Every structure is written in structure tokens, then in C-alpha cells.
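User: Could you go from structure to sequence for me? I need the amino acid at each position, not a summary. C-alpha cells:
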């Protein structure tokens, strides 16, 4: 159990209800780095691909068009495979 919740195909109605288009934008190139979530984050992948590997857990692959929620306290490694653009919110 990774604790990462993935919605592989959120509909336009759900994205609009969440207000995704108003969330901050974050971008990065190909990279690999450790990350720990201080609070819950929900992210919508606009472009690119990433593999998020929780400490002691199985890798979770994410790509454009997917919505993911990362729980507070999750320690993981991000491996960005293709340059990434995402919208995100905390809480």
C-alpha cells in the first residue's frame, strides 16, 4: 500500500469542481529527487511522466491526464522521466 491515490481518467466535470485550472503550476525537467509531503497534496499531471516510489513501497507511474493524491507524511523518490507540468493544491 503506497497511500498514493490515482484517478487515471478524471472527467472534465470533476476537474472543474475541484478548480484545477486555478491551482498553482509546477514544472521541472528530467530529474530524480527525494521528497517528503508535510501535508496532503493533490496533483493533476498536465504533461510528462514521472515514477513516484514510496520508501518501502512499490513504484507508482503517473502521466498526463492523471490526478494523484499524496498523503501527508509520505516519504518517496520522484523520478521524472519526461519534463513535467502539473497543477497542485495542498490540503
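Assistant: Here is the amino acid at each position, in order:
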Amino acid at each position: 500500500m503506497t497511500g498514493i491515490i490515482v484517478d487515471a481518467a478524471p472527467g472534465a466535470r470533476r476537474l472543474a469542481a475541484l478548480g484545477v485550472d486555478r491551482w498553482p503550476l509546477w514544472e521541472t525537467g528530467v530529474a530524480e529527487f527525494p521528497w517528503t509531503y508535510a501535508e496532503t497534496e493533490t496533483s493533476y499531471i498536465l504533461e510528462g511522466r514521472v515514477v513516484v516510489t514510496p520508501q518501502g513501497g512499490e513504484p507508482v507511474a503517473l502521466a498526463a491526464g492523471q490526478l494523484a493524491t499524496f498523503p501527508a507524511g509520505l516519504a518517496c523518490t520522484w523520478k521524472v522521466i519526461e519534463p513535467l507540468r502539473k497543477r497542485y493544491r495542498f490540503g
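One structural detail worth keeping in mind: The radius of gyration is 12 Å.
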